[in-house]
Specification:
Length: 159
């Protein structure tokens, strides 16, 4: 009977550990599900997802913060051609916050057919500015120093 009780305690401890660890693993796996840039059209942030983190980043004047979200294009700007070339446009989040997106077209392909009213998902680095902030590093880093970023329009990923 003693052996059975000892085995039972070990099994109970294992079950308890699995019960406590399972929700944590599910949260981790759910967070990874949306980050696969190669899955065209899947894993896009839901409208408004990421807005709270970006509002907090604006309030805190954050820099170098990896973020993900989506917004509607409200203005397409001319390319920045000084230094590395960047495709530039302004998006409005569901919260109303605006962000400048600076997408390096020397490293990643241009987002083709981009226009006002388009919904764009993004994964990149947030840099605070008084107008709402800038999203950059929306591409893979050739040096491997930054997490890979991306832009997604109409199911096509640009990175």
């Amino acid at each position: 009977m003693t052996k059975f009780c000892a085995a039972s305690r070990g099994t109970t401890a294992t079950l308890l550990l699995l019960t406590l660890a399972a929700p944590v693993l599910l949260v981790i796996l759910a967070g990874c599900a949306g980050s696969a840039p190669g899955d065209a059209g899947s894993g896009d942030p839901a409208p408004g997802e990421g807005d709270a983190a970006l509002a907090s980043a604006l309030k805190d004047q954050a820099h170098d913060l990896q973020v993900q979200g989506s917004g509607t294009v409200v203005k397409v700007l001319p390319d920045d051609i000084e230094g590395g070339r960047h495709q530039r446009f302004v998006i409005r989040l569901e919260s109303g916050q605006t962000l400048l997106v600076a997408h390096n077209i020397d490293v990643a392909p241009r987002v083709e057919g981009l226009g006002v009213g388009d919904s764009v998902a993004f994964n990149g680095v947030y840099e605070w500015n008084p107008e709402g902030g800038t999203i950059h590093w929306t591409h893979e880093d050739p040096n491997g120093d930054h997490a890979p970023g991306w832009l997604r329009l109409d199911g096509r990923t640009y990175q």
